[in-house]
Amino acid sequence: MSATILDGKATRNTIFAELRQRVDALRARGVTPGLATVLVGDDPGSHAYVRGKHRDCAKVGIESIRVDLPATASQGEVEAAVDELNADPACTGYLVQLPLPGRLDAGTVLERIDPAKDADGLQPVNLGRLVLGEPGPLPCTPRGIVELLRRYDVPLAGANVAVVGRGVTVGRPLGLLLTRRSENATVTLCHTGTRDLDAELRRADVVVAAAGVPGLVRPDSIKPGAAVLDVGITRTAEGLVGDVAPETRETAGYLAPMPGGVGPMTRAMLLLNVVEAAERAADRA
Ligand SMILES: NC(=O)C1=CN([C@@H]2O[C@H](COP(=O)(O)OP(=O)(O)OC[C@H]3O[C@@H](n4cnc5c(N)ncnc54)[C@H](OP(=O)(O)O)[C@@H]3O)[C@@H](O)[C@H]2O)C=CC1
Ligand SMILES: Nc1nc(=O)c2c([nH]1)NC[C@@H]1CN(c3ccc(C(=O)N[C@@H](CCC(=O)O)C(=O)O)cc3)C=[N+]21
Ligand SMILES: [Mg+2]
């Protein structure tokens, strides 16, 4: 038995077609959604991600604005770029590509983003809204994971979900999303202090691996038939590798592979956040 593949690319394409219609409807109301990216420095991986986001925008009809700053940019220069986008009516949503070069304080930059223009859902006010259950942009990777499971009818209500990693972009907000009443999962958040990781994983109906450790999840780590989502990404000499050992495909019931699973969904959810923010702005106008 081999796992059913949770195909993030195909699902992303479906979502893009849905978004294109919503963007057309916004344009008919005189609103043009525009996504901006702020990229600091010349990390090739970050450049590739940002290029991909602009390509995605073109596919669904969202305008895009690129702000590229040199690796030598000061904290004040990055904050000035954020202030400019907050004031720019052509920018309805934006993100600051992470990680920032080490000497810059990412927390202060994220706090400065206008919560109404936060495409990532990582601005502290929006993380607070997530905790409170109030509407707002949702963190893209967790939202992409929930959306992928929903579209393949993988049940979450009452399910035991083990999440490996408590990072701010994936694991911790995913725990918050999955424990909403609308999802109703029971979540175990695992990290380096977890005493017996495999014991937690074997209890789970759904395993989400977001640690950035190649081979962390193996066939004997999971309950046979479980849904496994590979989120972690590690750059090696052989290319990008996930957290899930390839043989796990034979034991899992569902597998979101890396590449081709959660990554494309993350990008789709970024654009969904931008479209939703533009719709909220149009409703207010
Ligand atoms: N596919 C996609 O769309 C995306 C993928 N990613 C990838 O997902 C991964 C997680 O991202 P992010 O949350 O930002 O990363 P962080 O580095 O912030 O978090 C990693 C987490 O994994 C935990 N961890 C590390 N090693 C182990 C281990 N051996 N056992 C158990 N837990 C462990 C850490 O525990 P502790 O807290 O104790 O240190 C930490 O909580 C990265 O590989 C990143 O590249 C990120 C965003 C999008
Ligand atoms: N402010 C901010 N927001 C982010 O959402 C953000 C960020 N910073 N910094 C980096 C991480 C990482 N991330 C990914 C997005 C898409 C893929 C993706 O599309 N991956 C493809 C493979 C990509 C490839 O082959 O290069 C896949 O999994 O199929 C991966 C990773 C978003 N991040
Ligand atoms: Mg063990």
From TrEMBL:
Q: What is this protein called?
A: Bifunctional protein FolD
Catalysed reaction equations from the record: (6R)-5,10-methylene-5,6,7,8-tetrahydrofolate + NADP(+) = (6R)-5,10-methenyltetrahydrofolate + NADPH; (6R)-5,10-methenyltetrahydrofolate + H2O = (6R)-10-formyltetrahydrofolate + H(+)
Q: In which pathway does it act?
A: One-carbon metabolism; tetrahydrofolate interconversion
Q: Does the keyword Amino-acid biosynthesis apply?
A: yes
Q: What are the leading ranks of the lineage?
A: Bacteria, Bacillati, Actinomycetota, Actinomycetes, Pseudonocardiales
CDD domains in alphabetical order: NAD_bind_m-THF_DH_Cyclohyd (cd01080)
Which of this chain's residues are annotated to bind NADP(+)? G165, R166, G167, I233
Q: Which family does it belong to?
A: Belongs to the tetrahydrofolate dehydrogenase/cyclohydrolase family.
The reply to whether Nucleus figures as a keyword in the UniProt entry is no
Q: Which InterPro entries match?
A: Aminoacid_DH-like_N_sf, NAD(P)-bd_dom_sf, THF_DH/CycHdrlase, THF_DH/CycHdrlase_cat_dom, THF_DH/CycHdrlase_NAD-bd_dom
Stretches assigned to the Tetrahydrofolate dehydrogenase/cyclohydrolase NAD(P)-binding domain? 139-281
Q: Which UniProt keywords apply?
A: Amino-acid biosynthesis, Histidine biosynthesis, Hydrolase, Methionine biosynthesis, Multifunctional enzyme, NADP, One-carbon metabolism, Oxidoreductase, Purine biosynthesis
Query: Which PANTHER family does the entry mention?
Result: C-1-TETRAHYDROFOLATE SYNTHASE, CYTOPLASMIC (PTHR48099:SF5), C-1-TETRAHYDROFOLATE SYNTHASE, CYTOPLASMIC-RELATED (PTHR48099)
* Taxonomy, superkingdom: Bacteria
- NCBIfam families, sorted: PRK14193.1 (NF010789)
Q: What is its EC number?
A: 1.5.1.5, 3.5.4.9
**What organism, scientifically named, is this protein from?**
Actinoalloteichus caeruleus DSM 43889
